[in-house]
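Supplementary Methods, section 5.1.

A reviewer requested that the exact input to the structure prediction be made available. We therefore reproduce it here, unchanged from the version used in the analyses.
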Amino acid sequence: MASKPSLTKAPRPYSTKTEDKNKDPLKGKEKVILPRRILASLPAHENIYTVPNILTFSRLVAAPIIGYLILHEQHVAALSLFIYAGATDLVDGWIARKWNLQTVVGTVIDPMADKTLMTVVTISLAVQGAMPLPLAYLILGRDILLSLAAVYYRYVSLPTPKTLARYWDFSLPSAEVHPTGISKVNTALQLGLIGWTMGTMAMGGDLGWWGPDGALKAMWYLVGTTTVWSGASYIYTKDAVKILTSRKAR
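The structure derived from this sequence is encoded token-by-token as follows.
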């Protein structure tokens, strides 16, 4: 007598969600390997939170405060804060070189802080009648033109995609700014002129355009000359602005 076929179903293979999770989602699919030239074009982020950059940023913040103090004739306080800003301008570069903390963003925000400080203080002194308007126009015009140039070079040097978030992400290096020799001299002369002016104001001296100090007038003409010269130097100096290659950006 033939036996009846068994109605028991064969057990299904044991599977768990854990095994599904461990499956390679790319299994069976073609994996794409990016060429080296594309990988090299992706810019690397750099650490921007260094002591020199923090000092530079503090100089940037101090600029409007100094301007406020000048306009409200708090000349001693304004001079003290200006001396602090000048000291950070010297110290931040030394620290960066001494402990190898140079960053690409530092080459951008350092001159930006200098220009902001110079612009704010120049306007404040001109409003107070402590600086002749023609000299103030020269200083401001040069800084405005250099700032517009910096905006342009940042845009053209930024790797794609060129988004607003990436544009303002200074940890993405794209261009370096190297101050020219005459630009460094001009910055020193401008700081000296402003410090001299603010010091005399703190002591109650007369600094009008027709004031009695002939040496200060000579300084005005000297600073005006170096301001024009330094602005032109960024045009004819080859390595003043350098677009970074992908390798150097890393």
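Confidence is low (pLDDT under 50) at residues 246-250. These observations are discussed further in the main text.
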